[in-house]
């Protein structure tokens, strides 16, 4: 909204109004606004949650310091959602299709997470919203995003074209004059770094192009579901999900900026996505909101984000990556989310397999998701036979170590653009 006001003032030669034309300036403002909003309203929301007795229900799982979390206000993801939406509404161009999709994603998954938390807290049902309803909602969002990207005329890319010399060395990178709709995406560690989903269904001949879009929509649904659930599983220690999301959001913001800037895109030899630079505003608000939330969520947490926050953060990350055609970088960038989800799947599979084979279920990890494995004393699985038991690692140390790994993965993700 402020963008349009200052754009009008700039036409009247109002001093300083032209600053709002620059993405970098509006992104800086978005970070500041979201930090201020999240810290200022955070205390009031926490007090309101305490007054309504919206506290965390804790089961005794034998984790150090676990019972001390009982009664801590939950549903704090409301703070994050407000701190994202308000700066975006004020500073972003609201006619940008990518911004519209990101706001829909935020509200959609925020509502889904809120319903889940509401059932857990007020209905006293620890299972929350039934899993099938979550999946249906996530599939619905995936369909909205995928089909919008397919049908919207404003969603185009300009493919990067390499010009090589006689020694097969790239001299410079240029771009097609006209933007086109495409199912191409960036693939890491490969010289020809664009993968077109159409290549995967080329055997369908004349139907390859529509089939590629069907495949693309399926991929979008899978990514939205997988990343939002991964973030949900990661939200188990104070500050872990919020801090990890801030790191991922920073990386996605950088990728959006270089993808929407033709000179940087040319230097990195990646596709140019007109309009994607506006997503930097959203990424900036996302970063400010998650860092601001850490003011209250860092150990020892004064509030938990609940599914209201974790499902929203994961969905935002997944949709953002799809929009800038970097979804295949997510297994690296979201490595923490991926490993947390993988640990749960491995544990369940191994437990069922050994129970069927030996009549008694066995475990690979002491507890899943993976972060809880480091909280429990002793060993599990193969380690139990070859190592002495060790004590639990303090929660704050586990979180910081996961953050460090997240930073390393973020750097590696950015490096893949040149590591070919």
Helix/strand structural class: mainly alpha
Distance between the termini: 42 Å
**What share of residues is helical?**
55-70%
**Uncertain stretches:** 382-388
- Give me the count of strands: 4
Strand arrangement within the widest β-sheet reads 1-2
Describe this structure in words.
By secondary structure, the chain is mainly alpha-helical. It has one domain (18-157, 197-343, 398-415). 60% of the residues lie in helices and 4% in strands. The chain is built from 16 helices and four strands. It has helices at 2-11, 23-51, 77-91, 97-122, 131-151, 197-200, 208-234, 240-259, 262-268, 279-297, 306-323, 330-333, 335-358, 370-373, 383-386, 395-415, and strands spanning 160-164, 170-175, 184-186, 194-196. The strands form two sheets. The protein has a two-stranded antiparallel sheet with strand order 1-2. A hairpin with a 5-residue loop joins strand 1 and strand 2 (170-175). The longest helix is centred in the first third of the chain and has 29 residues, at 23-51. It is globular and about 65 Å long.
Identify the notable features of this structure and list them briefly.
420 residues; two-stranded antiparallel ribbon; 16 helices; mainly alpha; 4 strands
Topology:
Elements: H1 2-11, H2 23-51, H3 77-91, H4 97-122, H5 131-151, E1 160-164, E2 170-175, E3 184-186, E4 194-196, H6 197-200, H7 208-234, H8 240-259, H9 262-268, H10 279-297, H11 306-323, H12 330-333, H13 335-358, H14 370-373, H15 383-386, H16 395-415
Antiparallel strand pairs: 1-2, 3-4
Helix pairs in contact: 2-3, 2-10, 3-4, 3-10, 3-11, 4-5, 4-11, 5-7, 7-11, 7-13, 8-10, 8-11, 8-16
């Amino acid at each position: 909204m402020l963008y349009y006001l200052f754009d009008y003032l700039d036409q009247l030669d109002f001093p300083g109004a032209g600053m709002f034309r620059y993405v970098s300036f509006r992104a800086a403002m978005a970070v500041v606004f979201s930090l201020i909003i999240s810290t200022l309203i955070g205390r009031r929301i926490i007090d309101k949650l305490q007054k309504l007795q919206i506290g965390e229900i804790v089961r005794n799982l034998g984790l150090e310091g676990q019972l001390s979390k009982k009664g801590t206000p939950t549903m704090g993801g409301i703070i994050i959602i407000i701190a994202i939406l308000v700066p975006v509404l004020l500073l972003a161009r609201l006619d940008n299709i990518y911004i519209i999709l990101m706001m829909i994603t935020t509200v959609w998954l925020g509502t889904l997470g809120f319903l889940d938390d509401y059932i857990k807290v007020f209905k006293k049902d620890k299972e929350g919203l039934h899993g099938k309803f979550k999946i249906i909602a996530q599939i619905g969002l995936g369909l909205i995003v995928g089909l919008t990207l397919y049908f919207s005329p404003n969603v185009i890319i300009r493919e990067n074209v390499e010009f090589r010399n006689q020694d097969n060395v790239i001299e410079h990178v240029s771009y097609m004059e006209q933007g086109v709709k495409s199912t191409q995406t960036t693939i890491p560690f490969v010289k020809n770094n664009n993968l077109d989903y159409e290549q995967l269904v080329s055997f369908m001949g004349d139907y390859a192009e529509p089939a590629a879009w069907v495949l693309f929509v399926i991929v979008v649904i899978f990514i939205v579901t997988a990343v939002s659930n991964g973030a949900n599983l990661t939200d188990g220690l104070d500050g872990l999900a919020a801090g990890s999301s801030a790191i991922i959001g920073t990386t996605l913001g950088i990728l959006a900026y270089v993808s929407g800037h033709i000179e940087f895109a040319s230097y990195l030899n990646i596709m140019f996505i007109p309009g994607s630079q506006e997503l930097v505003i959203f990424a900036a608000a996302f970063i400010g909101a998650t860092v601001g939330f850490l003011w209250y969520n860092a150990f020892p947490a004064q509030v938990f984000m609940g599914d209201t926050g974790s499902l929203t953060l994961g969905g935002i990350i997944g949709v953002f990556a799809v929009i800038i055609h970097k979804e295949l970088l997510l297994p690296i960038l979201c490595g923490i989310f991926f490993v947390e989800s993988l640990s749960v799947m491995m544990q369940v599979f191994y437990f069922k397999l050994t129970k069927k084979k030996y009549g008694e279920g066995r475990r690979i990890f002491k507890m899943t998701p993976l972060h809880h494995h480091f909280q429990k004393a002793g060993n599990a699985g193969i380690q139990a036979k070859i190592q002495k038991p060790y004590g639990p690692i303090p929660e704050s140390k586990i979180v910081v170590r996961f953050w460090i790994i997240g930073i390393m993965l973020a750097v590696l993700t950015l490096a893949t653009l040149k590591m070919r």
